[in-house]
Design a protein that fits this description.
Length: 115
Amino acid sequence: MLSHFIKKRYFSSLPAIDFVKIVEVGVRDGLQNEKMILPASTKLKLIELLENAGVKEIEAGAFVSPKWVPQMGTTSEIFKQLQDRGHKDTKFSALTPNMKGYNEAIQLGVKTVAV
C-alpha cells in the first residue's frame, strides 16, 4: 500500500523510463573520505569482487590532486592495471573535476568520465 502511495505521489507526473543506468561509485566515493589510505591492490580486489557480483559499471577512481585527496593517489595505477588485465564485461569511469585530471584520464585510456 505504501509503495503504491509513493509511486502515485512522487512518480506519476514523470515520463516513463525505459532504461536505468546504475554506476557503482564505492571505490571512489566510498573510499575517498576514509582516513586509512588503501593500496591499489586492495582497491583492485574490491573492483574484482564487484565485477564478480555482476556490477557492470564502476567508477574506479578520481584524477585529483593527491595533496587534497590522498586516497585517490593510486588512480593512475588502478587504470593502468585495469587496462592490462582486460575489462570482462565491465565499464570503468573516473571522476575528473578539472582539465588536468581529464587529460590524465584520456591518456590512460579512460573512456567515460564524470565531471
